[in-house]
Design goal:
Blueprint lengths: L1 H13 L2 H13 L1 H6 L2 H16 L5 H23 L11 H8 L9 E4 L3 E5 L1 H5 L8 E3 L12 H13 L2 H38 L1
Antiparallel strand pairs: 1-2, 2-3
Helix pairs in contact: 2-9, 4-5
């Protein structure tokens, strides 16, 4: 139990606002490598950068575990706030995380299909730039299915067949959106770090 307390104190000392924001920034920076490389190797790079920048030893396992924790909180809050009739939850890192993750398929599915509602296309994930607060599943008539004649799997198949012809443009659009998200994220990150530093300087005075 004493050992656990020591570990918790050490973790709390490591993961300050500045180090958490830097971790989020680095995950964004290494996003493409996470898709194409062994994740352990990327986390080792990130931990090395954090250790150098912050002047304290942070292992790749700690980075991995911390990111998974942040991701879980973000997903939970996003799901909670998307549900109607419930009080919205706030989290100091939500906006920064959302700037980075709001358009990812694993966070917001591109489309869902059911026998009762047909194909439900999420506009934001389809690359329309719809804001997160307004995001909702909508029915796109162009890709809707006849529920009486088609199953969910057939519905999904038809959808992707029809979407295939526009993949080239979609890829280019997603690339442009990704570059814009990176610019927005860095701007948000720098502004937030500036606020934290100003607050720290005020407290020191």
């Amino acid at each position: 139990e004493q050992r656990e307390d020591e570990v918790q104190k050490h973790e709390k000392k490591i993961w300050t606002n500045e180090s958490i924001l830097r971790l989020i920034n680095l995950v964004e920076e290494f996003e493409e490598q996470f898709q194409n490389s062994i994740k352990k190797h990327i986390w080792m790079k990130i931990s090395k950068i954090l250790t150098t920048d912050l002047g304290t030893s942070i292992t790749w396992q700690q980075c991995d575990t911390k990111w998974k924790g942040l991701l879980k909180i973000y997903k939970d809050i996003k799901e909670h706030n998307s549900s109607s009739g419930r009080n919205r939850k706030r989290w100091e890192y939500f906006e920064v995380m959302n700037e980075m993750l709001h358009n990812k398929p694993e966070i917001t599915p591109v489309a869902t299909c059911s026998n009762t509602k047909g194909l439900m296309v999420n506009e934001e994930s389809s690359g329309t730039g719809k804001s997160t607060e307004d995001e909702e599943n909508i029915t796109d008539d162009k890709y809707s299915c006849d529920n009486k004649r088609k199953s969910s799997s057939t519905c999904a198949t038809d959808f992707f067949k029809k979407k295939r012809s526009s993949i080239g443009n979609a890829v280019e659009r997603r690339h442009q959106e990704k570059m814009q998200r990176q610019d927005d994220f860095l701007k948000c990150f720098n502004e937030y770090v500036g606020i934290l530093r100003d607050k720290k300087n005020s407290n020191d005075e």
